Amino acid sequence: MNLSRRDLLTIFLGAPLAAAACRAKAPKRPEGEIVGASASRGHELRQPQKREPLSWRTTEVAIIGGGPAGLAAAWRLVRGGKRDYEMLELEPDVGGTSRYGTDALVDHPWGAHYINAPMAENRAMITLLEEMRVIEGRDKDGAPVIGEQFLCREPDERVFYRGRWYEGLYLHAGASPADLAELQRFETLIAAFADFRGADGRRAFAIPMAKSTSDPRITGLDQISMATWLTENELTSPRLRWLVDYACRDDYGTRIEDTSAWAGLFYFAARKRSDGKESQPVITWPEGNGRLVRHLHGIVHERVTTGALVTEVRPTASGVDVVAVDRQNVAFGVRAKHAIVAAPHFVAERIVRDLAGNPLPPRNFAYGTWLVSNVHLRERPAGRGFPLSWDNVIYESPSLGYVVATHQRGLDRGPTILTHYFPMCDAAARQTLLGLDYGACADIVLSDLRRAHPEIDTLVTRLDCMRWGHAMVRPKPRFLFGSEREAAATPIGNMCFAHSDLSGVALFEEAFYRGVHAAETVLGRAGAKSESLL
Questions:
Q1: CATH number, domain containing residue 216
Q2: Which of 149, 203, 268, 273 is deepest in the core (most CB within 10 A)?
């Protein structure tokens, strides 16, 4: 990209930081590289691909995509007694945005890094976590009891503001009585949503979202933005609005002005059992949700073909034909009785054909772009105030800060790995990211970290970056309960769809639910007798 360093840092981090960074001597670039997502191969789908397979093989179920939804579908098929399936995945590794990296020190996430303890309605996730021995039993209300070693250890969260770290994510330091009163009122409103039950008896907001109420008093919140909802409820405190904006950037890669109010409230209320109870605890591992991927892959790995670019999925009179290209650019075909398209919608609309042989109609799905970096350090960075935590957020930064991979292992001294998350909410940054080389990406990450850790350059031993061009679906206003999401989830012949895109919120739990749902549809059509996990 033909941008000066000042211009680049201004786009990503703002003019004040860019000016300060450029006044100092540019530090030596650490060792590292851009890793991950095979954007160049995936971008081949931008042009129609007409490839005739040189060979065909058969299977009962073809699964297109090896992210959490595809893995969940395969897992559910196995539990239902179906082992005649093949999964086709573009990348060398499965897992999608829940992939993880390995290191002699500690494994570390390349994307999603936690789930919340599931409530009773999330039967599929409970079954998985019981299988993984994460759940130790049930409490008196029947809720799962999570093993202590899997819960995020303390200290869990801190925020950096004007030279000092503070406990938690809400900035209490310097908060006025009016600020605190608004925080209390916001929490009261969230508690009311947690207690709400619609005419259908369902919670206002539940995980998975398919278990949420269809009451129009709740679904109607999708018609406005989260920023509008805050304003309508006279919640104007900058500290509160920062917290809510952080939440939307964290889960959705969007600002409050661009986030459906339903999704913004879902973030807070879906994780609360009822009024007076804290949010469900966080379950995490050093590699984040990579631990879930590792478990699922261990069950299905023998039937996974990686490096496969699927170019066409078309229904036939007897099932579904899938055309793909392998790593050597050789086309091959898979004939299946059923198919589960567990790819994001922007891929599905380029490869799927309907019963008449036509491509899917364009639909208004929008996606967020992320830069995720793993920063290897020889020693912990210093800092004033609250100590190093699992989640470390910089108040005045457009990034989300970083999580510490060694935290859950109880390694509190010596080398560590910081996983830095940067959602590209600004259009200019999103358009620029994929054109950047490694040096520019590393400069952005280290310039951001210097806000809180001026000595960071003396500690870094390696820095690797992953650019997620289409990291997650964005829940814009009027998208979640519009017609397009429902249409995208509708089966075509013997072809079902499964991806977190179909929920409109990109949580692991949503992808898992969608994969299980698709697999149970296939099991039902195949006449298999298996009790539903939904």
A1: 1.10.405.10
A2: 203
Q: Is the domain of 465 the same as that of 376?
A: yes
pLDDT digits (tens, 9 = 90+) for 113-132: 999 999 989 999 999 999 99
Angle between helices 123-131 and 508-525 (to 10 degrees): 100
Q: Are residues 482 and 456 in the same domain?
A: no
Distance CA 63, CA 338 (A): 9
**What pTM, to 2 d.p., does this model score?**
0.96
Mean pLDDT of all residues in 209-231: 98
Token readout for 359 is 């491509």
Q: DSSP 3-state helix, strand, coil percentages of the chain (rounded to 5)?
A: 35, 25, 40
CATH number at residue 427: 3.90.660
Pair 235, 349: CB distance under 8 Å: no
Match 């478990």 to its residue by tokens.
295
- Decide if 162 is inside a domain: no
In the 8-state DSSP scheme, what is residue 49?
A: -
Per-residue pLDDT tens for 293-337?
999 999 998 899 999 999 999 999 999 999 999 999 999 999 999
Residue pLDDT, tens place only, 250-294? 999 999 999 999 999 999 999 998 766 788 999 999 999 999 999
> For residue 170, is it within any domain?
no
* Amino acid found at 303: R
In the numeric block, the tokens 């496969």 are attached to 308
- For residues 254 and 302, membership in a common domain is answered with no
Count of the separate structural domains present in the chain: 3
Backbone φ, ψ for residue 198 (5° rounding) = -75, 180
Other CB atoms within a 10 A radius of the CB of residue 350 amount to: 20
The residue from 231, 246, 280 where one domain ends is 280
Same structural domain, 217 and 350: no
- Residue 16's alpha-carbon distances to 21, 436, 448, in angstroms, are 9, 21, 12
Domain span at residue 393? 5-30+367-473
CA distance 438 to 417: 18
Q: Are 95 and 290 in contact (CB under 8 A)?
A: yes
SS3 202: coil
3-state secondary structure 215-242: CHHHHHHHHCEHHHHHHHCCCCCHHHHH
3-class SS at 76?
helix
How many CA atoms lie within 13 Å of 314's alpha carbon, on the beta-carbon side?
A: 13
Q: Are 467 and 482 in a shared domain?
A: no
